[in-house]
Design goal:
Helices cover about 45% and strands about 15% of the residues. It has 13 helices and ten strands. The protein has helices spanning about 5-10, 15-20, 25-35, 55-60, 65-75, 120-130, 135-145, 150-155, 160-170, 180-185, 225-240, 250-255, 255-270; strands spanning about 15, 40, 45, 65, 85-90, 100-105, 195-200, 205-210, 215-220, 245-250. The strands form three sheets. The chain has a four-stranded mixed β-sheet with strand order 7-8-9-10, with helices on both faces. Helix 5 crosses helix 6, helix 6 (about 120-130) packs antiparallel against helix 7 (about 135-145) and helix 7 (about 135-145) crosses helix 10. It is elongated and about 80 Å long.
Length: about 280
């Protein structure tokens, strides 16, 4: 069995014993190392030269990628952050990492295998619930639920820490974007009915407030055919008595007070109500 091919199939980095158990011979491993096609990362670990740098760093330091770092690698909606988040067992020896790395000494909900370099998503979500502000944690959990990467009923049966239980109780699987969750979360005090991904006039809208106020969120890729389709739908909504408000990522994340003021004024004017 070719050592490089087997290693590449496993993400470019693995324990030596894992490769041997898979059928790679000691001779093949030694020849691959001598030729430079495989390098030693640390005792018992090898990698291809162009392996993922984050994975290499995790193996060198004996940690697993977790929390928001793992969530982002899984394609979940994660607000911008600067630190790299990793996890180790609560009884692990001291870990030496760079200043920009956040280490979580956490007991995993699902046992980690000795081969793991990336944490189980459930463990990462559990850490997120304890590490991140409540709003951010809910956003990420809802992203995982929306992408069907985790199951609500299965999560509820696990021995989650109290913080994770609280986030699970609040999280819903309907948000198509974390920005939708943020808007609903921040406006919840208004006690006005809000429906995410509501079906209105043949299309889904990001958020329907009351009966007639539509909030649409323009992402970075909101261009071309999608933009044209949305403009057409906006016109149909307005002709049918709906009021449409559009906001960008920057407005919501950087100028929330202005966004909230506009939505509050629209509700104060009764634009969320149907004409009787």
């Amino acid at each position: 069995m070719d050592a490089v091919a087997e290693l590449t199939k496993r993400g470019g980095i693995a324990r030596t014993r894992t490769l041997l158990h898979a059928g790679v011979s000691s001779y093949a491993l030694r020849r691959a190392k001598e030729s430079g096609r495989i390098v030693t990362v640390r005792g018992g670990w090898v990698a291809i030269p162009d392996a993922d740098r984050l994975l290499l760093g995790a193996v060198k330091r004996g940690v697993v990628l977790s929390c928001v770092t793992l969530a982002e690698r899984k394609g979940l909606w994660v607000p911008e952050h600067s630190a790299l988040h990793v996890a180790v067992a609560p009884n692990a020896s001291r870990v030496v990492v760079a200043d920009h790395v956040m280490v979580h000494w956490s007991k995993p909900v699902i046992a980690r295998r000795s081969d793991d370099i990336e944490d189980h998503l459930v463990n990462a979500l559990s850490v997120i619930a304890q590490c991140q502000p409540f709003e951010t944690a809910v956003v990420i959990w809802e992203s995982a639920l929306n992408k069907v990467l985790v199951d609500r009923q299965s999560l509820a049966r696990l021995p989650l820490p109290p913080a994770a239980v609280t986030v699970l109780e609040r999280a819903r699987p309907f948000a198509d974007s974390g920005l939708e969750t943020i808007i609903v979360f921040r406006l919840g005090w208004m006690r006005v009915p809000m429906v995410q991904q509501a079906w209105v006039l043949g299309h889904r809208v990001d958020l329907l407030i009351g009966e007639r106020l539509v909030v649409q969120i323009d992402g970075a890729t909101h261009t071309g055919a999608q933009r044209t389709s949305d403009i057409r739908h906006d016109a149909e909504l307005k002709l049918r008595g709906y009021h449409v408000l559009r906001f960008s990522y920057e407005q919501i994340m950087e100028h929330w007070e202005q966004v909230q003021a506009v939505i509050m004024e629209a509700i104060a004017q009764g634009l969320h109500l149907a004409v009787r």
